[in-house]
From TrEMBL:
Residues 3-153 form the Amino acid transporter transmembrane domain. This is Amino acid transporter transmembrane domain-containing protein. The chain crosses the membrane at residues 14-35, 99-117, 137-156. It is found in: Endomembrane system. Carrier protein involved in proton-driven auxin influx. Mediates the formation of auxin gradient from developing leaves (site of auxin biosynthesis) to tips by contributing to the loading of auxin in vascular tissues and facilitating acropetal (base to tip) auxin transport within inner tissues of the root apex, and basipetal (tip to base) auxin transport within outer tissues of the root apex. May be involved in lateral roots and nodules formation. It comes from Cannabis sativa (Hemp). The keyword Membrane applies. Keywords: Amino-acid transport, Auxin signaling pathway, Membrane, Symport, Transmembrane, Transmembrane helix, Transport. Belongs to the amino acid/polyamine transporter 2 family. Amino acid/auxin permease (AAAP) (TC 2.A.18.1) subfamily. GO terms for cellular component: endomembrane system.
Amino acid sequence: MFAFFIPTMSAMRAWIRASTVITFSYTIILLVLMIKEGKTNSAKNSYEIPGSKVGKVFNGFGAISAIVACNTTGVLPEIQSTLREPAVKNMRKAIGLQYSLGLVFYYGVSIVGYWAYGSEVSEYLPKELKGPNWIKVLINLAVFLQTIVSQHVRLLSNLKIYVNINLRLYIS
């Protein structure tokens, strides 16, 4: 509900910072736990990719499309950074940060998850964790909070579109 009362994306600075902290906390905790479990499980894992050649090709294309979809999140920092002058310099810094630091964590989780659990890894990595339950709860809570923040950012932009359309209809 908080997003409906915030006039601009720039005013959401605190929520975006909170979202960043939650994301990095989740990722770092997950990486540490996967490395710990990978050291004990790595001899038992199978790294063979199951399926026929055609299935492997289509799964590869599916993985590429998932990577492309996940890596388009750099658009938000780019848009926000172009609001200040000089726009091009700020945009390049924002995109550079997103596609360097962001990809290190994104691919880090993918590669470490594959190393720790093999090719039979779950699509939701916290399902694989064998640590204490409180850590699983903490990770799932971080995912839940991140989802709430990100969906409210989306709702804010949808609300602005709705208001703009109604305003244009009212004026014409």
